[in-house]
Automatic annotation (TrEMBL):
InterPro entries listed in its UniProt record: AraC_XylS_family_regulators (IPR050204), Homeodomain-like_sf (IPR009057), HTH_AraC (IPR018060), HTH_AraC-typ_CS (IPR018062), PAS (IPR000014), PAS-like_dom_sf (IPR035965), PAS_fold (IPR013767)
Protein name: Helix-turn-helix domain-containing protein
UniProtKB keywords: DNA-binding, Transcription, Transcription regulation
Organism per entry: Arthrobacter caoxuetaonis
Extent of the signal sequence: none
Domain PAS: 1-41
Residues covered by the HTH araC/xylS-type domain: 143-240
Keyword Iron: no
Keyword DNA-binding included in the entry's annotation: yes
UniProt GO MF annotations: DNA-binding transcription factor activity; sequence-specific DNA binding
Length: 244
C-alpha cells in the first residue's frame, strides 16, 4: 500500500470513491464508521447508491436515477440524507469531484450542521434534563435558604451573613448557590421584603408602617428600592392596584 492510499484511508473526513459503474472502489475508515460498517470489504465492490441511501428518511424507496451523487462527476456542496447499515437516516453535506478519466468520482461528506431551530426543537422533544444528585442537593439547599429568608426577612438585622450562619455555610457558598439561579442572597432578601411591603400597602397600611414591618429601617432606601422594582412610589400602590 503506497503512502497516498494510506493517507486517504486514515483521513478524518469521510471519503468514498465511485467508479464508472456506480460501484464503490474505495472507502476510508471515517466513511465506513459513519455508515455503520465494520470493514472496507463490507462496502467496496457494492452499489454506491444502495449503500449510501437505498431509501429516503421516510422509508420510501430512493431510485438510483434520482440520486444526484452517482455520475455527478463534480458538484458544489449540497445536502442529502444517508442511511446507515442499522437503518438510521443521517443528514449530511456532501461534495464530489472527478478524479480523472476512468478513475471515477471522489465523494466527501460530513454531518450537516444543525440550525438553531433544530437544536431547540430537539432539546424540547427530550423534555427537562434530569437533575444529577449533586444538582438536586444544591437545589434543595437553595430552597431551604429561601424558606429561612421567608421566615426571617422582617428582622432588619437579617443579612446574607445571618442567612449563611443559620445554614452553617460560608457567605461565599451561599452566594454561589444563589448565583446558580441567577440572583444573590441579598437580592432575594430585598425582593421578599418589597413584595411583603407591597401587600401591606395594598391592604391600606401607611408607608412608614409597611416600611418597618418589612425589615427596612430607612424610608428613603425603602422608597428608592420600591420604585426601582415596581415603577411607582410606595404611596401610589393603592391607586395603582385599583386601576389594574
Amino acid at each position: 500500500m503506497d503512502l497516498l492510499t494510506q493517507v486517504v484511508r486514515e483521513a478524518p473526513v469521510p471519503l468514498w470513491v465511485i467508479d464508472s459503474q456506480g460501484l464503490v472502489s474505495l472507502a476510508n475508515k471515517a466513511a465506513i464508521r459513519f455508515l455503520g460498517y465494520k470493514a472496507e470489504d463490507d462496502v467496496v465492490g457494492g452499489p454506491s447508491h444502495d449503500l449510501l441511501h437505498c431509501r429516503r428518511p421516510d422509508g420510501t424507496p430512493y431510485p438510483k436515477h434520482e440520486c444526484p451523487i452517482v455520475g455527478s462527476g463534480g458538484t458544489a456542496p449540497a445536502s442529502e440524507w444517508f442511511v446507515t447499515r442499522a437503518g438510521d437516516a443521517r443528514p449530511v453535506q456532501w461534495t464530489t469531484r472527478s478524479i480523472g478519466p476512468g478513475l471515477g468520482t471522489l465523494l466527501s461528506f460530513s454531518p450537516r450542521p444543525r440550525t438553531q431551530k433544530q437544536i431547540v426543537r430537539e432539546l424540547r422533544s427530550r423534555g427537562p434534563a434530569p437533575r444529577t444528585p449533586a444538582v438536586q442537593v444544591r437545589a434543595e439547599l437553595r430552597e431551604s435558604l429561601c424558606r429561612t429568608i421567608a421566615s426571617r426577612f422582617t428582622d432588619p438585622e437579617f443579612t446574607t451573613a445571618e442567612l449563611a450562619a443559620a445554614a452553617h455555610l460560608s457567605v461565599r457558598s451561599v452566594q454561589a448557590l444563589f448565583a446558580e439561579a441567577g440572583t444573590s442572597p441579598a437580592a432575594e432578601i430585598r425582593r421578599v421584603r418589597l413584595e411583603h411591603a407591597r401587600t401591606l400597602l395594598a391592604q391600606g397600611h401607611a408607608v412608614q408602617a409597611a416600611c418597618l414591618a418589612s425589615g427596612f429601617l430607612d424610608p428613603g432606601t425603602f422608597g428608592r428600592a420600591f420604585r426601582q422594582r415596581f415603577g411607582c412610589a410606595p404611596s401610589q400602590v393603592p391607586a395603582s392596584l385599583a386601576r389594574n
